[in-house]
Write a structure and sequence with these properties.
heterodimer, A: 211 residues, alpha+beta, six-stranded mixed sheet, 18% helix, 33% strand, B: 727 residues, seven-stranded mixed sheet, six-stranded antiparallel beta barrel, 17 helices, elongated
Chain lengths: 211, 727
C-alpha cells in the first residue's frame, strides 16, 4: 500500500506537489487579490469553561483571534470554544500543550484538522469580495484585524477570521470539510471581477511564520 | 474624486432604498459582466443630493407626443444635438422655461409664443391627437405648432429622506416639499435643500460634505469603542461641527393642473378626472385614492405624479396640500429586476473525500439533501450480489457523527435514546432509537464508547443537523449542568462500510494494531487502530447490510487513500464498490428500517416495531410519557415485512393497502426486487388486525390493479436469525 497522502477537499491547482504529507498546489500568483487553500494547517478545537485556566491561558475572548507565544493563531470561535491554527503536522503538539493546562472543569481537545476546510483570502479588495457573499460589515471599525466571527458566507456556515499579513488585508475562512470545494468555488466566482487568483499553499517557513 | 484610492464612484447607479442604520441598496446597471446588480452598502453618513425633478402639468392632451418638459427640450438640444420640433409654444413659470425658449431658438426652432405663467397666463389644451398640432391658451389664442414645452415647477424627490424617517414639509412659497427633521446620519444638499446661485449651492454642498465626514468619523469612533482594536495609535480628537449655510428658497407659482382634465400618472393612465371621481365616491384620503386608482403605483413610483395628485386631491377636498399629505415613499425608488433582487442563488453542496473516485468510476450521483452521493456504479443488483458473495465497500461519510466527551455522556444518551446506555462498556457499540416527546421515531444510529469519557454517536445522514439541534436543546436548556461536550465531526472522518463474507480477510491485509478475529472483535464492538498506514482510525462491527461488515472511520484527508487501498488490496477477493441503491436493497432484504422512509411524522416507536428497544423501566427520557401510553394501546399501525404473492411484481413505494371498496388500512413503505431472493420484497405499515404473520393484504397499485401480499413473520426477508452478520 502506498504511503498515505492527505488531501484537502479543494482540488489543488496545478502544479501539484506534496508537502508535510499533504497534496498541495505549488502555484504562485502575483495578483493583488489571492486565495490560498490552507487546509493542511493543524486545527485543534478546544472546549472549556470561559472562567477556567484554559481560557485564561489561551487569553483570547470569543470574537477575537491572536497569536500566542508559539505562533499558534488562537481563535475565540464560540463561547467557551477556541480553534487553534498551527503549522501542518503539529496537531498533536498543540493538543498536548492544551491538555497540559491544569483546569478543574471539563476540557475537551479535538483534532479538527481533517474535519474543516480552511482558506485564506489576501489583498486590499478582500473585504469587497467578501461583502458580495456575506452580510457582515467588513469595515475597519467593525471587523478590524483580529476579528473573528461565524456567519453565512455564500449561504454556508463559515468561520471568518481577519488575520492581516503585514500591511495587507487578509481573511481566513473555515467551514465543514465537505463544503470546502463549494465555498472555494463560490469565492472564486465572487472574486472574478477583482482579478482573483489561486495561490498555492505557502508553508509556514515560506510565510515567515513560526512553528 | 474617482482617483482617490478610498473612494469608489458608481455610475449608472441609483440608491433604491434606505433601511435601518443607513443600510442602502444601490442598483448598479450596465456593468461589463452583469446587466444589473444590487450592491448593499452601509453609509456611516448618507448625503442625499438627488436634485429636483421637473413636474408635468395636468391639462387636456398632456400625453400627446410633442408635449415635453423644459429639461427634456434642453437635454435634447444641448446633450444630444436634437432639434425637438419646428414651431414651439413654451409655457414657462420659471427661469428654466425661459432658458428653454432661448435654447429652442438657438437650435432653429421657431418659438411662436412664450405663455408666461408668472403673468397669469395659462394654457387650456393641445390639439392634434397623435402629435401636437396646436395649443389653446386661456386668453382664447390658438397657436399652430408641433411642440409644447412646459416649465411649471419642481418636485423634490424626498424618497430617501422619508425612508430615513423624515417627514418633508410643503413650502407654499416655493410650491415644493423640503426636508424637515433629518436623522443625525442623513444630510441633504442641492436643490432638495433649497435654491440659490451656483456658488451658494457649491458652498452648501462643501459644508455638507465636511459635516458628513465629521459625523462619519464620530460614528466610526463609536464603533471602535465597542470592539477590541489592534491599538496602534490614539484616537484623533473629535472635530467641531461644520456650519452648513442655509440655502435661500425662491418663490415659484403653484402650478399643478390647469382648467381641463389630463393625465396625472403616465405609467398607470390615471387622469385628474379619475381622482375627482374617486374623491366623490368617498376616497378622500390620499392613501385610499392611491390604492383605489393605482396612482403613483407604476414604474415612476410617484416621482412625476405624487405632488400633482396631492394638489388635485387638496383642491377636491378643500384642504391644503400640507394637510392632505403625501403617500408613503417606499423602496424601490426605481424599477428593479427580480434577478437583481434575488442575486446569486447559492446552493451549498457537500462532497465526501472519495467524490473524485466516484466520478472517475462512473457513479451515478444521488442528491441527498446537500450531499452528492454515489447512487450506483452501473448495476445495483450485481453490487448487491457481490456483497452477499464477496466483499463490497460503500462510502457512508454523510452519516452524522458526533464526538461526545465528559462524565455525563451516559446521562445524555439515556435522555436522548429510548433504550439503555448506562451499562455500555468501553469497546462496545449499541444501536439506539431516538423519539421526540410525542413518542414519534426521530432518528436512529449506532453509538460507540471509545474510552471512559469518550463516545462517538452516529445518526442518519439526513437527520444529523436535526439531532445536533436536539442535543444542543437538551444540553443548553434542560441540563446545562451536565458535563458534556458535543462536537459535530461528520466530515472529520471519511466513513466506509466494508461488507461481505470476505471483508475480514480484506481488512486483515490493511489493519494494524487491531485483532480482527471473531472472538477478539465480535459483533457490535468498536476498536481503534491503524488502517492502510493511517493512524487514529476507528472501526466498528455492525450489520446494516445483513452481512459480516465493518464500518471504518478514517481521518477525512486520508479517505481517498484508504478507499483506494481497499480497492487495490481487495482486487483478488472480488471487491466492488456499491452505492446507496444497493445498500437500500441489502438493508431491505435484512429488514432494517430507514427512519423517514419506513416511518413518517406520526410513526411511534411501537408502530415501527421497536418495542424491543424501548425501556420503560429506566429513568426519564425524551418521549417516555407518550411511549408509556403507546405501550398500553394496541390500535396503532405496525411495520411488517410483506411479500407479494406474485414475486415478479414490485409495488411502488407509497402504494396503498386497502380493504373492501377503498378503505385505507396501510401502505408500502419500502419495496424492491431482491437480487438475492429473486423476488419482490417490501416493508409496510398495516392496521393492527392485518399484522399477524400469514395474513394476506391487498395492495392497490397506481394503475388500479390490486394484488395480494403476505405478511411475513419477520421484517427480515433474508437471514432473519442474523447468522451472516454475526460472522
Amino acid at each position: 500500500v502506498a504511503e498515505p497522502v492527505a488531501r484537502s477537499p479543494i482540488a489543488p491547482t496545478s502544479p501539484v506537489t506534496v508537502v508535510y504529507g499533504w497534496e498541495i498546489s505549488a502555484r504562485r500568483s502575483g495578483a493583488d487579490l489571492r486565495i490560498m487553500d490552507c487546509t493542511p494547517l493543524a486545527k485543534v478545537l478546544v472546549r472549556a469553561s470561559t472562567d477556567g485556566e484554559v481560557a485564561r491561558t489561551l487569553g483570547v475572548p470569543f470574537g477575537r483571534a491572536a497569536r500566542d507565544e508559539h505562533g499558534t493563531l488562537v481563535v475565540g470561535s464560540g463561547p467557551g470554544e477556541w480553534l487553534l491554527l498551527a503549522p501542518p503536522a503539529t496537531n498533536a503538539v498543540v493538543a498536548r500543550r492544551v491538555e497540559g493546562i491544569p483546569d478543574e472543569g471539563l476540557v475537551s481537545v479535538f483534532d479538527a484538522t481533517h474535519g474543516r476546510a480552511l482558506m485564506r483570502i489576501t489583498g486590499e479588495r478582500a473585504a469587497d469580495l467578501l461583502a458580495k457573499v456575506c452580510g457582515v460589515d467588513f469595515s475597519e471599525e467593525v471587523t478590524p484585524d483580529g476579528a473573528a466571527f461565524r456567519s453565512s458566507v455564500a449561504k454556508l456556515v463559515t468561520d471568518v477570521v481577519r488575520d492581516d499579513r503585514g500591511a495587507e488585508r487578509s481573511y481566513l475562512l473555515h467551514c465543514e470539510r465537505s463544503s470546502g470545494q463549494y465555498l472555494f468555488d463560490a469565492l472564486i466566482d465572487a472574486g472574478d471581477e477583482f482579478g482573483f487568483e489561486v495561490e498555492g499553499f505557502l508553508t509556514p517557513e515560506m510565510q515567515g511564520v513560526r512553528g | 474624486v474617482a482617483a482617490a484610492a478610498n473612494i469608489e464612484v458608481m455610475t449608472d447607479s441609483v440608491v433604491n432604498g434606505r433601511y435601518d442604520d443607513n443600510w442602502v441598496a444601490v442598483l448598479q446597471r450596465n456593468l461589463p459582466h452583469v446587466a444589473e446588480r444590487l450592491v448593499k452598502a452601509r453609509a456611516k453618513t448618507l448625503v442625499v443630493a438627488p436634485g429636483l425633478i421637473e413636474r408635468p402639468y395636468v391639462f387636456e392632451g398632456n400625453d400627446t407626443p410633442g408635449v415635453i418638459l423644459s429639461t427634456a427640450a434642453r437635454r435634447l438640444i444641448n446633450l444630444y444635438a436634437v432639434k425637438p420640433g419646428n414651431r414651439a409654444v413654451v409655457f414657462s413659470a420659471n427661469a428654466d422655461g425661459d432658458a428653454a425658449a432661448e435654447d429652442l431658438q438657438r437650435a432653429g426652432v421657431e418659438v411662436a409664443r412664450v405663455v408666461d405663467a408668472r403673468q397669469g397666463e395659462d394654457i387650456v389644451r393641445v390639439g392634434g391627437g397623435t402629435s401636437v398640432s396646436s395649443v389653446e391658451c386661456v386668453d382664447g389664442a390658438k397657436i399652430e405648432c408641433d411642440l409644447l414645452v412646459a416649465a411649471v415647477g419642481w418636485t423634490a424627490p424626498t424618497s430617501l429622506l422619508n425612508m430615513a424617517g423624515d417627514r418633508p414639509v410643503y413650502d407654499e412659497r416655493a410650491a415644493r416639499f423640503f426636508p424637515s427633521r433629518l436623522p443625525d446620519d442623513v444630510l441633504a444638499t442641492g436643490g432638495i435643500a433649497g435654491d440659490g446661485t451656483l456658488d451658494e449651492l457649491l458652498a452648501h454642498a462643501r459644508a455638507t460634505g465636511r459635516e458628513a465626514a465629521r459625523r462619519a468619523a464620530r460614528r466610526a469612533r463609536a464603533l471602535r469603542a465597542g470592539i477590541p482594536q489592534s491599538a496602534d495609535g490614539r484616537e484623533k480628537p473629535e472635530a467641531s461641527p461644520v456650519e452648513v449655510p442655509e440655502l435661500p428658497v425662491e418663490e415659484h407659482p403653484a402650478l399643478f393642473y390647469g382648467r381641463t382634465h389630463g393625465i396625472v400618472d403616465y405609467s398607470e393612465d390615471v387622469t385628474s378626472k379619475d381622482l375627482l371621481a374617486a374623491e366623490k365616491e368617498g376616497y378622500d384620503s390620499i392613501e385610499l385614492v392611491k390604492r383605489y386608482t393605482t396612482v403613483t403605483m407604476g414604474p415612476t413610483q410617484g416621482k412625476l405624479e405624487t405632488v400633482n395628485t396631492v394638489a388635485i386631491m387638496a383642491a377636491a377636498t378643500g384642504r391644503t396640500i400640507e394637510d392632505t399629505g403625501t403617500t408613503v415613499w417606499r423602496p424601490p425608488y426605481s424599477p428593479i429586476t427580480l434577478g437583481a433582487l434575488a442575486g446569486r442563488i447559492f446552493e451549498p453542496v457537500r462532497y465526501s473525500p472519495m467524490q473524485t473516485w466516484h466520478e472517475r468510476h462512473g457513479a451515478k450521483p444521488l442528491i441527498a439533501g446537500a450531499w452528492i452521493r454515489p447512487d450506483q456504479y452501473g448495476d445495483p443488483a450485481s453490487e448487491v450480489l457481490n456483497v452477499r458473495e464477496n466483499v463490497g465497500i460503500i462510502d457512508v461519510t454523510p452519516l452524522g457523527k458526533f464526538d461526545l466527551r465528559g462524565p455525563d455522556v451516559p446521562r445524555l444518551l439515556e435522555m436522548l435514546y429510548v433504550n439503555r446506555w448506562a451499562n455500555l462498556d468501553v469497546g462496545k457499540v449499541r444501536y439506539g432509537v431516538m423519539c421526540l416527546e410525542d413518542g414519534v421515531v426521530f432518528d436512529d444510529g449506532v453509538t460507540g464508547r471509545l474510552g471512559p469519557d469518550r463516545y462517538v454517536m452516529t445518526t442518519t445522514s439526513s437527520g444529523a443537523a436535526s439531532v445536533w439541534e436536539w442535543i444542543d436543546n437538551w444540553l443548553q436548556t434542560a441540563h446545562p449542568e451536565w458535563q458534556v461536550h458535543v462536537t459535530p465531526v461528520t466530515t472529520a472522518y471519511a466513513s466506509i462500510n466494508v461488507a461481505g463474507p470476505k471483508c475480514r480477510e480484506l481488512l486483515l491485509r490493511l489493519t494494524e494494531d487491531v485483532d480482527l478475529s471473531p472472538d477478539a472483535f465480535p459483533y457490535m464492538r468498536v476498536r481503534t487502530g491503524r488502517i492502510a498506514g493511517v493512524d487514529d482510525c476507528f472501526m466498528w462491527r455492525i450489520g446494516f447490510t445483513g452481512e459480516l461488515s465493518y464500518e471504518i472511520h478514517v481521518p477525512a484527508a486520508y479517505g481517498l487513500h484508504v478507499w483506494e487501498a481497499l480497492m487495490e488490496r481487495g482486487a483478488d477477493l472480488g471487491i466492488k464498490p456499491f452505492g446507496v441503491e444497493a445498500q437500500r436493497i441489502l438493508r431491505l432484504e435484512k429488514g432494517h428500517l430507514i427512519v423517514g422512509q419506513d416511518t413518517d411524522g406520526l410513526t411511534g416507536a411501537y408502530s415501527a416495531g421497536l418495542a424491543w428497544a424501548v425501556k420503560l423501566d429506566k429513568g426519564d427520557f425524551a418521549g417516555k410519557p407518550e411511549l408509556v401510553w403507546q405501550s398500553e394501546r394496541y390500535d396503532y399501525h405496525r411495520l411488517v415485512g410483506l411479500q407479494p404473492h406474485d414475486g415478479s411484481l414490485v409495488p411502488p413505494e407509497a402504494s396503498q393497502i386497502v380493504e373492501g371498496e377503498n378503505e385505507l388500512v396501510g401502505r408500502i413503505t419500502s419495496s424492491r426486487m431482491s437480487p438475492t431472493l429473486g423476488r419482490s420484497i417490501c416493508l409496510g405499515l398495516v392496521a393492527p388486525h392485518l399484522a399477524e404473520p400469514g395474513t394476506t393484504v391487498t395492495v392497490h397499485l397506481p394503475d388500479g390493479e390490486r394484488i395480494p401480499a403476505r405478511v411475513m413473520e419477520h421484517h427480515a426477508h433474508f437471514d432473519p436469525e442474523g447468522v451472516r452478520q454475526r460472522g
